[in-house]
Structures are given as C-alpha cells and as structure tokens.
Amino acid sequence: MHFSYQLPPLLLLALTGLGCGAHRGTADHHYEALKADITRLQADQDRILERLEGLEARKGPNPREEQVASGDRPPLKVVVLQPESEEADDLGEADEPEDNDAPRTLVRVHGNHEAGGRKAKKEDSKPEADAERDYQEALSLLKKKQHRRALELFTAFQVRYPANPRIETALFWMAECYEALGDLPRAIEYYEAVIARFPQGSKTPDALLRLATYHKKHGADARARELLLRLRSDFPQSESTRRAPKD
Question: Which of left, alpha, beta for 44 (phi over 0: left; psi -120 to 50: alpha)?
C-alpha cells in the first residue's frame, strides 16, 4: 500500500507570494515559521505512512480465513468401531476416504453390541437373584423355628432390598418371629406395617385376623370388630375371612 501527500497549490502560491513580496520584515518571519511547521508536519506524516506500510506488510493474508472463504474444510479423522475379534490390519482400503491423507484414529470395542447387551442384562438380574436367595434362606430358618436367626436375616433383607416385591411377606414373617419370641408390641407394630403399606396385599388379610385376635384376647372388642369388619369387606373370599369368628 502506498500513500502520497502533496501541498495544496494555493498554499504554494501563498508561500511564493510571501517570499517575493516587498515587505520582507514581518512577512519573512511568518514565512519561516510557517515553513518550519509544514516541514515538521510533513515529517510526521512520513513516519505515520511508514508505520502503516509496515503493519500491512506484517499482517499479510490469513490462510485459515482464505480456506474458510473458499469453502474448503480440514479433513476429519476417521473413527472405526471394531469388535475385539477383528484386527486393524484386516480393514480394507474402501473403509478410508480416498481424499483423506490424515492419520486414522482407531477406536476398538471389545466384544459386540449383542454380547454387551446380554452382559448388562445378566448384571441387572444379579441383585434379584441375591434377594431371592436371601429371602429363601430366612424363610427356611423360620420354618425350622429358628426365629431369632430368621428375624436377623429378614431385617437385613428389608434393609438391603427395600423395593423388592418380597418386602410385604418379609414384614409379615418378621411380625411372626417377634410373636414367637414373645415380643408382642413389636409383633403388632409389624402386622400394622403390613396393613398400612400394602392395604391390598396378599398378607394383609392374615395381618388383620392376627390383630383382631390379639385385641379380642386383651379386651379391646371395639378394635377387634373394626378389624374383622375391614377383613370381611376388603377380602371376602380370603382364607382368613373364612377362619375369622362370626360374632
């Protein structure tokens, strides 16, 4: 880039007229001062022009901007997902883009999608299998009348598997264990927990009958009648209803 600057013609004529006028005294003094100012301004302008030209030269064209402007894009790396049984050397040339000179990036996937799905399903089923095993072990101890040990395992079961479908029956068996061990307040607490948490559960009729029997035995006839009424109303076809007293 080139910059040029010329003094205006009228200013040159004025300087010439001042130099040739008849009054040389004050005019000459003003002339010399004006000339010095013009010389200084001209030097400042030259320095500014030199700096501008230097900046333009250093800046130069931006290759990335030219590439984007031309519509070109840098080549992308190729990512290949490969099962473990395959080797990278077995990949054919057709797997590579013809105009891509960039090095390939190989991502290896061990196994295959189907096998991974089966593995995940197997891992998901493991907690269910563990829960069933623990439940059956506790129930086996209950059937052997090892109530204290069965109670410990049922307690651990409800802590470890709070959302398991067996929780309802586990709570009921815990109430039975407490009743067999003579801890009736705790037994009542767990029978009531079964009724409150599972109002339509499979063990709720048994819990209602057990509570009704307990309250009848201890003189709480009103409470016993209330529980029996609910038993007959909510579970008319249950075995507990058929075994319940009629009065």
Answer: alpha
